[in-house]
Amino acid sequence: MEMILDIVSWVLITGGVIFCLIGGYGLISLKDFYARLHAASLIDTFGVGLIFIGLMFQAGFTLVTAKLILILAFIFFTSPTATHALARAAINHDVLPEVDTEEERELVRKTKTTTQGTP
Amino acid sequence: MTDLAFPGLINYWIVFLLMMIGLYIVIAHENLIKKIVGLNVFQVSVFVFYISMAKVKGGTAPILDGTIEVFSNPLPHVLILTAIVVGVATTALGLALVVRIQESYNTIEDNEIRDIEERED
Amino acid sequence: MMFAVAAAGVVVTMIFAMARALMGPNVYNRILAVNVFGTLSVMLIAIYGFVDGRPEFLDLSIVYALINFIGTIAVTKYVTFSDMGHGDDGDPAGDI
Amino acid sequence: MNIEIITSDVLNVVTLLFMAVTGIAIARIRNLFAVVMLSGIYSLMGATLYVILDAVDVAFTEAAVGAGASTVLMIGTLALTSARENATGSSQAIKAAIVCTFVGIALVYASLDMPYFGDPSAPIHHHVAPRYLNDSMAEIGLPNVVTSVLASYRGYDTMGEAFVIFTAAAGVITLIGRGRREKSPSERKTDSQNIMKRKIVLRVVSKLLIPFILLFGLYVQWHGDFGPGGGFQAGVIFGAAFILYGLIYGLGTLRAALPSWVTRVILALGVLLYAGTGVVSMIKDARFLDYNVLASTPTGGQHVGILLVEFGVGMTVFAAIVTIFCAFAGRAAADVNTVSDQGGAGND
Predict the structure, then answer these.
(1) What is the C-alpha separation between D214 and D191, in angstroms, rounded?
(2) CATH code for position B108
């Protein structure tokens, strides 16, 4: 039983670490701000999630697991909110994504006006 | 004593480097906000110095639970805990002074303020 | 061992985040990097609790996550308004 | 030498190196906004380091106060001044570098006499520390030795700190407390009209979170005897909830919920509670801040005394944080700093 739990933890934590590393690599290699937001969200969701679930298997049914769940829930609420606020602030201040085609450029313009317009 | 060879004194030397970075910022830069940030850098490194002296190898946090034998020294923790809060209180006071200086002189560069003062004399 | 691997992975990712925070190129990239750095610190603290064998100090991680969120909101608000006590006074660019 | 100790030592050095890199970046970058963000990272790394060095209470405080509150305050100052630093003269930089090199060499020379890092036989561990660790359970009866030392053994010291915070908050009120901006009635009207239409995501999430943050603050306040926590930390967390409210709903709404006279009263009440506890113990024929007489048994008295004193500290710190934040946020933005500047502010 102990060993099964350890193996599950290993798998989850290794997975989480790999997602963190991919996200971190994306953070420095991707070209524009919005692409980097995606890389960051990988860390905030899969990275934190998998690692914390892996830790929960090690902690067992204790207060520690409850606290881990709390932190996880907190991050799941706040991190997308912060990212949303950040992306919105960026697009309202003319930080535009790098796009290739005219069609995409049109899409960017549209998004910008809808986020900016007062209801 | 081989156990103690790493990090040995290296730990303290990096802390001294941090202190000197803080000191450098405070001396070399004219901008008052930058000076306060430098003071913060220095302050945190002094805190780190105290806390690293309190560490006992293999010990854990000084919260007793009946089973653990080796604890780190709690006294520096207490000193630094209060120092941090006082530090932010003084930082706030310093920043408030910076705001007032900006309003009176319309600049927060130390040398420009000195120039204005000299012209007034 | 497991926790050491996890801590190593998180530290390497921290290096990436730090590099992005130093490179910029604009304010938003920095804020993003600092936010990610905060999340990674939360993870590092949680993992270190297990390394140390006393994982009951997870309250700290909660504080880190909280401060990280409030910090990001404050910074975003400053970038948007250059002012922190701003309410809602009909500035169309003010919606963060 | 097992894997735990190696991991913790390596993490220790790596974190210090992170801090050094951040420090050098702070010294070099001239965009103050980036500098403030990096100093936030610097504090956060410091807090992580305290966890690695077993100082969980200190880490708690540094994360909440150093990384949270002072970053917010510095950004508030930037909003009122300018986010750009002038170039410094190179002669001054060289002089500063020479001074720092000499001081650094002197420090390293002095450190050669120091005991190695983590040495259990270092003199620092053989004076009062064993007494605290061995006898505090019998004398005070609390698992968290840091709280025992903070609130009971060194209660005078902590009272002094509480008064320093009180004084600093009073000083900030005197310097910049009177906000310069008054809103016209028409502006207020648009406020109420727009209030539900904007920032929907942030509003909903913050409404969800703020009660839990307050609850967590109370937990930290009352659980400080048994785990990391206590008045200083709880005060900042409580204040952080209100700062979040003020950031998202505007300062006017925050001040409607928590008028300035209330925070000022709490600010004074906190230190009054602390000193009052000492006076009560004097009335009961003991020395100032000797809690043993506050209940029927000595340890029971210590419990009551520490709870009261920590609550006093929590009140003062909370009120000070909120007061200082409101003072900075309420000051009208100086006209040197407009929104359009900010787009380019990140390009160094």
Answers:
(1) 26
(2) 1.10.287.3510
Angle at which helix B74-105 crosses helix D155-176, to 10 degrees, equals 10
Contacts of D61 in chain B (CB under 8 A): 81, 84-85
Q: Tokens for D348, please give them.
A: 């160094």
Closest by Cβ to C16, choosing from A24, A81, A93: A24
Please count the structural domains in chain A.
Answer: 1
Count how many domains chain B has.
1
Side chain identity at residue A43, one-letter code? I
- D164-179 per-position pLDDT tens digit: 999 999 999 998 877 5
pLDDT at residue A119 above 60?
no
Under DSSP, the state recorded for D332 is P
In a domain, D117, yes or no: no
Q: What is the pLDDT of residues D63-94, one digit of tens each?
A: 888 788 888 889 888 888 877 788 777 888 89
What is this structure's pTM? 0.89
Total number of domains constituting chain D: 1
Window C:51-70, CB contacts with B under 8 Å: 52-54, 57
Of C15, C26, C43, the CB nearest to A95: C26
| Amino acid code (one letter) for D16 | L
Say if residues C62 and A67 touch (Cβ distance below 8 Å): yes
Establish if D229 belongs to a structural domain. yes
Residue range of the domain that includes D218: 127-336
ipTM, two decimals, is: 0.90
Which uninterrupted H or E stretch holds D31?
Answer: none
